[in-house]
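To close the chapter, one final illustration. This time we ask the reader to focus less on the individual chains and more on the assembly as a whole: which components sit near each other, and how the overall shape emerges from the parts.
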Amino acid sequence: MTICKIYITFAENLNNYAFMKNKRNRLQIISEILRSTVVGSQDELLKLLIDKQCDVTQATLSRDLKLLKVAKTPLSNGAYKYILPSYNKPLASQGAYNSLVAHGAILSLEFSGQLAVVKTKPGYASAIAWDIDNKANDQVLGTIAGDDTILVIPREGVSREDILSMLNIAFSEKN
Amino acid sequence: MTICKIYITFAENLNNYAFMKNKRNRLQIISEILRSTVVGSQDELLKLLIDKQCDVTQATLSRDLKLLKVAKTPLSNGAYKYILPSYNKPLASQGAYNSLVAHGAILSLEFSGQLAVVKTKPGYASAIAWDIDNKANDQVLGTIAGDDTILVIPREGVSREDILSMLNIAFSEKN
DNA sequence: ACAATATTTGAATAAAAATACATCTAATTT
DNA sequence: AAATTAGATGTATTTTTATTCAAATATTGT
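The assembled structure is written out below.
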C-alpha cells in the first residue's frame, strides 16, 4: 500500500467563506478560527462564524466542537480558550511543516499494526519528525527518525484516521 | 522545558484523606483523581471527593479546576473528560536512573500496546538506550534510539510494571 | 490579642454548553 | 420518481459550569 500526497492541496484557499455552507466546510472554518484566535465561549465563536457568513446556532456549534474534540481550557489570565486537539502548537512550526509537505518532502505513509512509517526525501526525516512531535503531541507518543524514514508511534486509542488527519493528509469528520 | 516532579514527594500519605481539609490538599486530591479516573462532570468529581471525605460544593470545584487549568475535552465514545495540563504529569525518580531523571534527561515514559517509548532530552537517547539494553536484558528484547526518543521493545510476558520498576520510574498514566 | 486585610467558601444565580425532540434536507433504495 | 433512510440543524430545554455576593476563615501587622 502506498499513500500519496494528493490530499494536501485543498487546504489552500479557505478565504472564500461565503460559498461554504456544508458541515465539512464549517468544521474547517471553525478549526481555522480556533487555530488563530482566542475564543472563550461558544457564543463568541458563534459571532465570529456569523461574521464569516456562516450561520449556525449554538446547538450546532456545541455538536461541532464535540466532533472536533475541542477542549475548553482555562488560561492564566482568568479567561478560557477552546483548543483543537492537534493544533495547540504555534503556527510557525505548522507553516514550516506545511511547506515541507507541499514540496513533497513526505513521500509516503504506511501503517503496520499500530505503527506508522513515513517515508521522506533523503535528509528530511528528522526535520519532519520534529514537526510531527511538536504538532501532534496528542496523537503521537513519539517518533524516531533515520535519514529518510520516520517511525511514528501513535498513542493508544489513536486511529489511523487520526494520524492521517493530523498530517493534513485527509480531513475526517468521523472522529 | 521543565517537567515537574513534585508530586511523588508528598504522595505518601494521600490515603488519609480525612485529615486533608485545606485547599492545597484538595487540589492535590483532585489531581490524583483526574490522573487516574475518567471524570466527565463536576458533579461526578464532587461525588468522588465526598467519597474521600472531602466536602466541597460545585462552586469551589469550578474554581479549583480553573486554578489547575483543567480542560474539559470530548472523548471518542461521546462522553467528556477532564484533563490536567501536561505539565501536571508526574515524573518520579528513584534508584539507578535517578541522576539522569533528576537532571531531566529522561522526560517521560509512556506505553502504547506492548511497546514503551522513552522521551529524553535531545542527544541523550542513545546513551540511555545503551544502559537499558545492558541493564534490562531480561525484560527487554531491544531498543531503538533516535536523538531524543527510545523505543523499548519488551520481551513477551513482560508487564508494564516490570518495565517501570526496571527503570525505577513511577508509573504515570496518560491523562 | 486585636484590628485590619486578604483568602476561601457556600448559596444562589447567571452564563454557558449539551441534548431531546421535531423538522428539514440529502442520500439511497426500490 | 417515490419511498425510505440517514444525517444535519434549529428550538426549547436541561444540564452543567462560572460567577456574584455575603459570610466565614485565615493571615498579617501593630
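The CA atoms of residues 96 and 168 of chain B lie 7 Å apart. Confidence is low (pLDDT under 50) at residues 1-20, 87-103, 169-175 of chain B. With these observations in hand, you are ready for the problems at the end of the chapter.
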